[in-house]
Amino acid sequence: MDLTLPPQVTPRAFQRLAEINDGVETPKALRVAVDGGGCSGFQYNIDLGEPADGDLVLEADGQKVVVDEVSLPFLANAVIDFSDELIGARFVIENPNATSSCGCGTSFSI
Fold it and tell me: For 51-85, how does the pLDDT look when each residue is reduced to its tens digit (9 = 90+)?
C-alpha cells in the first residue's frame, strides 16, 4: 500500500455533513473506518461520532471527518465523497488501494 497521502474529503461530503449537523447542539464528526469482514475481505464503516486520541482529523468549515490510525493505511490516497443519485444518497469512498470491490460498494479487497 502506498502511504503517501492521507484521505481527501470533497467539499460535497463536508457540505452534506454540515446539513446533517445543522441545528444540533453538538455537531458530530463523520467517522470513516475499515473493518475486517464483508464479502471481499474488508468493509467500510461510516458513522457519526466523536474524534478519539490518535485519529486523523480532516476539517473544513467547522465540520470534521475522522479516521482511526488502524484504518489510515487502508485509506491512504482515498477520496471520501457524497453521492446523491436516483438509487440513493450516501457517503462513498474512492479507494485506489482496493483491488476489487463488491456490488454493495462497502466491501473491498486489497
Answer: 999 999 999 999 999 999 999 999 999 999 999 98
For the chain, domains (ranges, CATH) are 8-109 (2.60.300.12)
> Among 31, 110, 23, which Cα is nearest to 65's?
31
- Grid cell locating 64: 470534521
Nearest to 32, CA basis, from 52, 46, 50, 11: 46
State the pLDDT at residue 36: 79
Instruction: Name residues whose C-beta falls within 8 Å of residue 58's C-beta, 6 or more positions apart in sequence.
Output: 6, 7, 8, 9, 64, 65, 66, 67
Return the C-alpha cell found at 31.
Answer: 467517522
What's the one-letter identity of residue 56?
A: L
